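#help-structures
NK: newbie question, is this the right format to request a structure? protein is GH18 domain-containing protein
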Amino acid sequence: MENEETTLVGQRESQPAVDLGDPFINSALVHTASACLIFVVVFIFVLPGILLTTLRREKPFQVDMRPKTRLSRQAYDGPDRPLIMCMVNSTSFQRPPPMTYTFEQVPSNLCSHVVFPLSGAADWSDDMLHYDYTHKITHPNLYREMVRLKKERPALKILVSVGEYEVNNGLFRYAAESMHATVQFCSAVLRWTLGNGFDGLVIHRMFTSGSPGEDRRGIIVLLQKLWVHFERHGLTLIVVFEPETDVFNQPLLGGKICSYVDYAVVVAHGFRSEAFADFPSPMRSRSSLNVTTDFDTAVQRALASGVPVHKLIVSVSLDGASYTLDEKADHKPGSVLLAGRSEGIPGLFTRCPGVLSYFEICRRLVFENWTRAWDGIAECPYAYSDDQWVAYEDQHSLMAKAEYVRNRSLAGMMVWDVSSDDYRGDCGSPNVLVQTIYQNFQSVFKLD
């Protein structure tokens, strides 16, 4: 009996631990060996390539993320030199010929800053890589040409603006909901700005009218964090206050907000009437029309709220406000508009009811025999023909506004937008309106 047990034990010990004849075992071994081989191939051949590509993509960020020496305005613009910030409407590149705008027509020699608006603020923050990809598909030359302008004129600042076309912009409220969201937003914006080679941001509709106090406090904290990031890397941060904002109704609030920005832009145009033919940016309002919003009032409200003089940029528009009059014979400012169809006929190239670009207005004056007149109270011109009436800016009105800015030592003017100027010179000198502002400032402002 003992010998039989010894024999069985010996047989068990002599058998292999794994039955290599088992199909299941063979299949498992094959799959294991294949997985190991794939892992080796990926680790040795594929992974280094991915890492190398990633490092190449990150290299611009690593270089740009080095803190730069932040220059004061006096250091790069000179003392008491008003700025000229030139906004470019991206839709002007899709105008029908011959008025299709090109980058060669941007008057960069007359501007201290060139600002390109980008639409889709929510998408811009949510997925910046996808946003860039989409914009490069829809506007293939936009980013490349912006960089080219910078290379041609190193002193020129290239900025991008966000939020201008967002009617109810919840982007900043979302980013200010928590400190985690704020930090993520600021880091992503900084990374995107540096990675694309831009010099800063212009932010619209950050402080909309009627925002709850809690939302506003969170947005101010967001702005403060963003300012810290931008200041560290020498970037420019600008906030825009729309005409309807209630920020300036609160004493010192404007000053508090401006502690965290380089400049504050006050929109001093777009004061459109729906009942009477009036001016979109009068120097002073007409009391007979019971209108109290004008160029001077917009500036004074901002200053009274604590916005520093040296940070205040006041905007002007090169688009005119056009109307359809009720009485063809009554062409004076304050004339009653046609009920139900008060907006003027769209222009041939801009195709927007109630709005005419300056190059469309001047062509009417030169080639279509429209009548021009001047209003001494508004210090603005207007033109009319039949039942069509338009108020706009010309050389004389912009000279008065430029004098206003310079005499009060304001930071400068933002031109909204340069693609509405007579940039082809169809009516005279090219870019005559921007040139007018530049000539007024040139004794104290010259771009190298």
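mod (FA): yep, format's fine, and the tokens are attached above. Residues 347 and 360 are 7 Å apart (CA to CA).
NK: thank you!
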